[in-house]
Amino acid sequence: MRKAVFVFAVAWRFRQAVLAAPAGTDIVSSHPATPVETHGKYWASYMKAKGYPSNEAVCNMIRNKENDLFSRSGGEDYYRIWMIDNGFIMDDWVQQLYLNATADAGTTTGNLGCTALDSKSCRPPQEGVCERYNPAGFHIIHTGIISMYTTLQAVDISDLGEIPLADLDLRTLATDFIWRENDWQNRDPEMSAIAPILFLLAGLLRPVGEAGLVTELVATEEPRVGTIGSFQLNTVARCLSLAAKSRRGGYIDISRLAHELPTEISSVFDDTNNNIAALTSKLFGGTSSQSLLPIDLMEFVNIILPETEGEERMGNEAFAPWYLLQQNYQDWEGSANTLRGYVHNSFKYMKVGLIGHLFKLRGLYVMHFTWLERDRCQKEFDGASRYVDGGCFVLKISGGGWKHLNHHDNAPTELNLAEEKYHLNVHNFFRNVRDCNNDGRMMEHGKYGMGELSYGSVS
């Protein structure tokens, strides 16, 4: 069944806690600044015994930009075995693994700290450093860490939303569809504060192409699961959903929409940025004390990287970075621009979502005549009808019941305005009302001289 037009189901699970922002500094390790000795520290011998390529061969594979390097280089086993030997302790794991891999270099290696988004010590591998890593597969791990970190660091959802938020023109939106005080069907001009945020979330994970609800969108490349663009987009969506979840129970006065909604969105975006910072901290070795409640990293991984059929993942969150590194994330260039396009489009989705809510508050509903031929559908109803999938759909104002052919309750002005000015895909709007009339009031009528009829309120 298609999703309801304006009550979007978010394709991920919400957590029950809101995350707090971590401090803007890297974690000071509780471990001594010495490498963890693993398998006698001599990783080159160990990897050779296990049949992995030599460090020199791995560095050549890296220079040649070969594929699937995390697995083929031995980096996959290196992370896994080191984490097991270290007792699955994630605190400061990036720095400790770095010290372990550079122990044989005989030089001061400095810090590799990536727990804060403003870190000065989360740097990519230096030129020619591959041969100094033992095993050289750590170079793959180091590069993957930096790709994910830099991608998260590039996100400022408040900045990305500033322009589309200013372009909403909420005063016009309200006056276009609400003219008189008695237009309110239930005399309660309020909407849940979470509703616009759910519209934004639906826009981030919108149906594409002909299935969409908005006809004019910024051209965006669909991020494939397992790519760095998908990692960024789904992380933002996840952290935005957590921010939205924490705001349940609040309401927005529709009569003050232009004032209250921007304030609400700005606050939610601030919380989203805080959530991204907290997630970054935990992912790269920060302690759980940096947030109000522990962050479940495996839940995060399972959401942004859905399990394939027959796959069963280990539940220990120490393996969360391991699963992400398996994606062999490479360049992240352009991902911020891709995200910007998605954010801009999500505001357009939110706008049509708000229109749907105004429709509902005014008591607008849809009638579906399955027997009415195309010509009559197009000529009747004063322009409030569309012929879709072999049936005639009509947008009507208040009442419902048997006002099926009464021209006085048609709503052509609202339908045409939504289509022409706000780019609502009217055909898909009617399909969604037909398929997912989820307020429970859809009624099936017999023919009774006028054919099969279904009634559904706009929701």
Automatic annotation (TrEMBL):
<keyword id="KW-0732">Signal</keyword>
<protein>
    <submittedName>
        <fullName>Uncharacterized protein</fullName>
    </submittedName>
</protein>
<feature type="signal peptide">
    <location>
        <begin position="1"/>
        <end position="20"/>
    </location>
</feature>
